[in-house]
Model the fold of this input.
Amino acid sequence: MVPMETLKELACLKPLSEEQLDKIGRISTVKTYPKDAYVQKENDIAASLYFVTQGRVAIEIDLPKHRKIVIYIVSRGDLFSWSALVPPHLITAGSLCLEETTLVEVPREPLLQLFETDIALKASMMETVSHVIANRLKDTRLQLGYLLGWD
Done:
């Protein structure tokens, strides 16, 4: 269980009511990862949604010849692993801790069950996830342009 005070500090959860935060807190856990640890890798099953409470996580995509490129850095208050909420629930980019990092882990299945009983929670969370996806797409395009030498 994650204390409500911890969840209240996460910018992307600001629109949620205390009751909704309490519901999320009841199904969530706090996990700490060391520097250079992968939380998940590209093409893994997205079993959880993550919120950063401390540290930074590089969102990276695999390139040919065993290369990777960082498309985004997630920091305090941000979320990643949005694929947990979007079928087919496969990770589209790896997540590498750049320093010791503490995360709130929200497991997919219990969260989807909450969505069935709280449509307002679902709407708010999916709006947040939509913004994250749009930002990641923009950043991926910028990285692609850089790699291709576009100015």
